[in-house]
Amino acid sequence: MPRPRPSPERLTGSLVELTGFQPAKDAAALWSAFGERRFNDLIRYFPNKDFNSEAQFRRWLEAAQGDWHTMVFRRLADHSAIGMASYMRIDEKNGVCETGAVAHAPAAQGTPEVTEAHFLMARHVFDDLGYRRFEWKLDNRNEASHRAAQRLGFTFEGVFRQHMVSRGRNRDTAWYAMIDTEWPVIRRAFEIWLEPSNFDAEGQQRKRLADIRADLLSTP
């Protein structure tokens, strides 16, 4: 049975709000949050060319909408833009989609806000839409993206060698995914990790997300 296409206007958590990309409102805010041309350092493993201006960035992201549905991450405390990710490669018939074009503002990297944003995106496809599978793919050289996928609960499934040509070179693509039967444990781990009691007075986590998942899986 086909599932609805993921295209939410708004997903709200306790720390962040995600809204569908609106070029006139969001392009400049994201470009600034990403450090303007320093954004190219953040996305050096993306297959597109570098951006020389906010206008180029806006045209690229605007043109991708339709095939993609980009969500902009905003911190609830001050409504500042802190990142983005897109639903892409959407297969409604089989209930499968990917999260990609993921970028976090340097000031937001490693924060609970970013973790909650990815939780909200996954929760939408599984709980709201009934998807069977949610994917994360990356250039196999991108160690930071490997770590992020593993931390968030995606399972490594292998490497597609010479999957595409990216920036003039062969790219090996690593595949990760989470599936609907795994989701209840992954969801509960996110919920526990995000509880205020999991953070000390300095805002440091008391228990890692991966350790919480492991504990849940080991409980009879």
TrEMBL record:
Write out the entry's keywords from A to Z.
Transferase
Which residues, by range, are in coiled-coil regions? none
Give the Gene Ontology MF terms in alphabetical order: protein N-terminal-serine acetyltransferase activity; protein-N-terminal-alanine acetyltransferase activity
Domain N-acetyltransferase per the UniProt entry, residue ranges = 20-155
Is Transferase among the key words of this record? yes
One GO CC term of this entry? cytoplasm
PANTHER family linked to this entry: FAMILY ACETYLTRANSFERASE, PUTATIVE (AFU_ORTHOLOGUE AFUA_7G00850)-RELATED, RIBOSOMAL-PROTEIN-SERINE ACETYLTRANSFERASE
Q: What is this protein called?
A: N-acetyltransferase
